[in-house]
């Protein structure tokens, strides 16, 4: 894992950790407890290990100690509890990624937040980008779905960004175009994107579909797999009958051309009548065309028996 791995994913992600130095927290008018002040110092030390010394293991270990101390501090004690927790998590994710231990990132994050829907937007964005970078798109499929469908996250400032990353780096790379369309057209898309953004997203999803998915018509809402199978079978039988009829028609016309001496007018009328039956009156996709097919087939059989069949068949045909 090359250095600067996570930083290259999104430069805005790094603003959570290094910029929140201990001095910046002291500017606030709210007094800081001694417990939180100690954790702030550990955060600064972890950032120094990560960015200055490139000692990723020490940076991660320092974040771990910060979380242990944070567990002893009540969340209501200071309004910056959540921000400090996210900062420690951000530095820890970067340290694990740089130390080529990215496989344990999700489990470590869930260990501190309990469930995926409790993650801050920045942490969810980092996890999606991290696992997308290493080609493990499916790792964040369930967690991203849970986070986006949590009502408490809908009004967060980073909700739209998480939805966009989940669409581009999880669903589309996995080929889940149906799920992607449902996401954009559903409640998540309405909350995360504008109308123009939803249209652009739908066009992008459509461009990622395979040619078979674009050409195959989707069955109706009441269609069942058995109905679809019966429809395909019936269409196949109609096509087979049509092919057989055309082969018989071609054979009959060739025989008529070589054996009978029609005048040009009668030959033209016969050809026009056959073309009328084929092109106008007979649509193989409609059940109403079956009687015309049978009549034409019977007529051709009569012509065949009259010209080449035994005497008794010719008499019966007449």
From TrEMBL:
Pfam family, one: Pex26
Gene Ontology MF terms: ATPase binding; protein-containing complex binding
GO biological process, one term: protein import into peroxisome membrane
Top-level taxon in the UniProt lineage: Eukaryota
Entries under InterPro entries matching the protein: Pex26
Ranges of Polar residues composition bias in the record: 207-217
GO cellular component: peroxisomal membrane
Record-linked PANTHER family: PEROXISOME ASSEMBLY PROTEIN 26
The protein's name in its UniProt record: Peroxisome assembly protein 26 isoform X2
């Amino acid at each position: 894992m090359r250095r600067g791995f996570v930083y290259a994913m999104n430069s805005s992600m790094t603003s959570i950790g290094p910029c929140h130095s201990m001095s910046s927290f002291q500017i606030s008018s709210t007094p800081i407890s001694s417990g939180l002040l100690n954790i702030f110092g550990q955060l600064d030390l972890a950032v120094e290990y990560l960015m200055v010394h490139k000692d990723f293991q020490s940076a991660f270990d320092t974040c771990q100690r910060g979380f242990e101390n944070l567990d002893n501090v009540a969340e209501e004690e200071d309004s910056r509890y959540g921000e400090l927790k996210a900062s420690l998590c951000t530095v820890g994710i970067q340290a694990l990624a740089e130390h080529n231990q990215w496989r344990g990132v999700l489990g470590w994050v869930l260990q501190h937040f309990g469930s995926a829907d409790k993650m801050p937007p920045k942490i969810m964005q980092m996890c999606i980008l991290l696992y997308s970078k290493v080609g493990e798109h499916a790792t964040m499929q369930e967690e991203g779905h849970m986070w986006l469908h949590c009502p408490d996250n809908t009004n967060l400032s980073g909700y739209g960004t998480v939805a966009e990353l989940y669409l581009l780096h999880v669903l589309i790379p996995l080929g889940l175009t149906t799920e992607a369309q449902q996401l954009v057209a559903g409640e998540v898309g309405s909350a995360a994107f504008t109308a123009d953004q939803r249209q652009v997203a739908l066009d992008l999803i459509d461009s990622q579909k395979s040619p078979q998915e674009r050409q195959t018509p989707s069955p109706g809402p009441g269609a069942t797999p058995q109905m679809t199978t019966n429809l395909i079978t019936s269409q196949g039988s109609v096509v087979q009958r049509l092919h057989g009829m055309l082969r018989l028609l071609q054979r009959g016309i060739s025989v008529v051309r070589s054996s009978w001496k029609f005048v040009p007018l009668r030959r033209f009328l016969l050809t026009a009548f056959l073309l009328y039956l084929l092109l106008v009156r007979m649509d193989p996709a409609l059940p109403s065309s079956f009687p015309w097919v049978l009549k034409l087939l019977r007529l051709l059989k009569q012509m065949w028996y009259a010209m080449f069949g035994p005497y008794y068949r010719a008499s019966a045909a007449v």
